[in-house]
Design goal:
Blueprint: E1 5-9, E2 15-19, E3 22-28, H1 32-47, E4 50-52, E5 61-66, H2 73-93, E6 99-103, H3 104-117, E7 123-125, H4 133-143, E8 146-148, E9 171-175, E10 177-178, H5 189-192, E11 197-198, H6 201-213, E12 218-222, E13 230-232, E14 238-240, H7 241-249, E15 256-260, H8 269-277, E16 284-286, H9 294-299, H10 306-319, E17 324-331, H11 338-351, E18 355-360, H12 378-401, E19 407-415, E20 421-425, E21 431-435, E22 444-452, E23 457-461
Parallel strand pairs: 3-4, 3-5, 5-6, 6-7, 7-8, 9-12, 12-15, 16-17, 17-18, 21-23
Antiparallel strand pairs: 1-2, 10-11, 13-14, 19-20, 19-22, 20-21, 22-23
Helix pairs in contact: 7-8, 8-10, 11-12
The structure holds 5'-deoxyadenosine and iron/sulfur cluster.
């Protein structure tokens, strides 16, 4: 980069040089961990003098943070790169310069292919190396392109800046764990994110305090297997997630806690009990089950049976009777029979989900299921998905309907769809819309739920004063 001189697109199409500012624009696809990673990339780049650009046209560096979990990841990437190539060329024609970088799980899985198919890309790096961004950019400067898809020995978290570059909104993500050792048959995560790693409790607590100091009222702890988190506590003892949640709940001003995504195998007694004991821990849990058939769960290498899942749900509800449950489902995993699929529907009926995500099985290159016998035809997957989604939609609608007439504490997080409206979150993670003053942003207020929609609630104000707690 030519430090100190930044070309940005001007209204007349010519590059305009603004002294002293380099700007990055990150485009994020995929999971909440990618959203967190993108924020942290901008933090790292802030230490190298980069501000944030609101749009690609204003950026010196564009990073595409990609997701590889399901189909069309590569096609989506290459079509976006095609668009950005034109921007890069018009910038060059105007005497300016634009750098293009590809990050995330597609970069990890297909780094060399990206550089071969899109040689105008300057930089490719995986999810574990973005703490090296300043030196990677220096390599681009010296060598033209750079690729870094290592799984380095040093955990990136130890090298990320302590301070966040941007302002934090009322709700924030905090990565506490990364990677996965479970190797479910269908999943690329163990290959793209690497082995399970937990951050030490002290680092998590420090980051949480900073997020609260810059405005966060609700923090969602993130990890591919977040409930497998194990870390050294500041007291020198070995902490579990339940212990960490207790310590986080003591931070003044931190009113709400959530964690995602969990594996049923790691729902320990202590963690289940924590749902009844920590008021700041919100009554909502995303706990993927994937299938309700033991035969499919075995083929998926899930390490739990349907009955284990139902037992966990029962115990969670004993600890916290109003807990709302969410899950992930895959239909059409290789070998899934009509009876297996019926078992999934039966599990859904037995649990009653507040919301859920469901997907057609998508073969991921390099995973065991991709090469397994008994691949299910696309049409059959489509039919099964439609049946499952109809049931899940009905359950979500019914759950939202139970809120009507109730008084709920809502954390206001942003402007709503209409002028004068705000949107917030219920304890059960439902978006709630309300006509309310802008000054309510970041506060928790009691509201009366007036109506339920398929994906949100409408409310009237009950309490002009702020809540001091959840
Ligand atoms: N095909 C379809 N869905 C998948 N998921 C993960 N891998 C695949 C795949 N190959 C789903 C799982 C997981 C969620 C994040 O994505 O349900 O829990
Ligand atoms: Fe993927 Fe299974 Fe690990 Fe979840 S637990 S990240 S589905 S391998």
């Amino acid at each position: 980069m030519s430090a100190g001189r930044t070309p940005i697109a001007a209204a007349n199409g010519k590059a305009e040089f603004v002294p002293g500012s380099l700007r990055v624009h990150v485009i994020t696809w995929g999971c909440q961990m990618n959203v967190y990673d993108s924020d942290r990339m901008t933090d790292v780049l802030a230490t190298a003098g980069y501000g944030q650009a609101a749009s690609p046209a204003e950026a010196d560096l564009i990073i595409l943070n990609t997701c590889h979990i399901r189909e069309h990841a590569a096609e989506k990437l290459f079509s976006e790169l095609g668009r950005l190539r034109r921007l890069k060329e018009s910038r060059a024609a105007a005497g300016g310069r634009l750098r293009l970088a590809v990050a995330g799980c597609v970069a990890q899985a297909a780094g060399a292919e990206i550089l071969a198919r899109a040689p105008f890309v300057d930089l490719v790096f995986g999810p574990q190396t973005y703490h090296r961004l300043p030196s990677l950019l220096a390599r681009v400067e010296a060598e033209g392109t750079a690729i870094d898809t290592e799984f380095p020995a040093e955990p990136k978290f130890d090298f990320l800046p302590e301070q966040r570059a941007g302002a934090t909104g009322p709700v924030a993500f905090l990565a506490i764990q990364e990677g996965c050792d479970k190797f479910c048959s269908f999943c690329v995560v163990p290959y793209t994110r690497g082995a399970e790693q937990s951050r030490p409790a002290a680092a998590v607590l420090t980051e949480a305090r900073q997020l609260v100091a810059s405005g966060a009222r609700e923090i969602t702890l993130l990890g591919q297997n977040v409930n497998a988190w194990r870390g050294a506590g500041p007291d020198g003892k070995d902490w579990t997630l339940a212990r960490l949640l207790r310590a986080l709940a003591e931070i003044p001003g931190l009113l709400r806690l959530r964690y995602t995504t969990s594996h049923p195998r790691d729902m320990t007694d202590a963690l289940i009990a924590a749902h009844g004991e920590i008021p700041a821990l919100m009554p909502f849990l995303h706990l993927p089950v994937q299938s309700g058939s033991d035969a499919v769960l075995t083929r998926m290498n899930r390490r739990h049976r349907a009955a284990d899942y139902l037992r966990i749900v029962e115990r969670l509800r004993a600890a916290r009777p109003d807990i709302a449950l969410s899950s992930d489902f895959i239909v059409g995993h290789p070998g899934e029979s009509a009876a297996d699929f019926a078992a999934t529907l039966a599990l859904v009926r037995a649990v009653g989900f507040a919301q859920a995500f469901s997907f057609k099985y998508s073969p991921r290159p390099g995973t065991p299921a991709a090469a397994a016998p008994g691949q299910i035809p696309e049409e059959e997957k489509k039919t099964r998905l439609a049946t499952l989604q109809a049931l899940l939609r009905e359950q979500q609608g019914r759950f939202n309907q139970t809120m009507v007439g109730r008084e709920l504490p809502v954390l206001f997080t942003g402007p709503g769809r209409h002028p004068g409206q705000l949107v917030g979150r219920s304890p059960y993670l439902q978006p709630v819309h309300l006509d309310a003053p802008h000054a309510w942003l970041g506060s928790i207020r009691s509201v009366r739920i007036l109506a339920a929609h398929p994906n949100s609630l409408a409310a009237a104000s009950l309490q002009p004063q702020e809540h001091a707690a959840a």
